[in-house]
Amino acid sequence: MKAMFRKARIATSALAAAAVVGLLAAPAAQAAPAGVANPDFEAGASGWNTFSLPFGTGIITDDPALPAHSGTWKAELGGHGRPGMDRITQQVTIPALRVPVLTFWVHIGTPTPATFGYHELTVEATAPDGTPYTLASRTNKDSGSGYQQVTVTLPSAFYSSTEQKAVISFFSVDDAANKVPFLIDDVSMAYRLKTSRPFFPPVLLKP
Asked: Helix, strand, coil shares of the chain as percentages rounded to 5?
């Protein structure tokens, strides 16, 4: 199984290189100062950049065959029955002196056949200097019933004394054996104060 997954990664390397070119050429998504724009996809692709190779469009959809977590719209990544990749991204604004926390809901259907094929989702955050950080990853082995909530705290690279921008992305790669996509819905970003260790003043002992 491990050898098959390694072969699948090699086979999709050319697709990954082409995806990078496509992302660089894509216009920047609108920033969302208060969090994530169109977090539940009910406004379609508004606020999101989408990239699909070699399938084109249709990542964000209201297809009733695969229900959303809430409402009727969601993002469907992968599961086309052909080797390829899908990606959705959005630029967010992180306030100064705040720790960003990303929350989303994901449903991982069981690929067909259930025990074969390559099917992986990666969630990334790209810092202002262009460095990508992997926040979470899921594969067909994580499939289960219904939507699951995932909450991740972004690393210290996204904490700053000044306001900064970051790009959040959901990226899937799979092969022809998989016909069930990763479903993403209700993406949100919260900003909390950075906690520190409590300070205990020294106790002066009387002689």
From this structure: 15, 35, 50
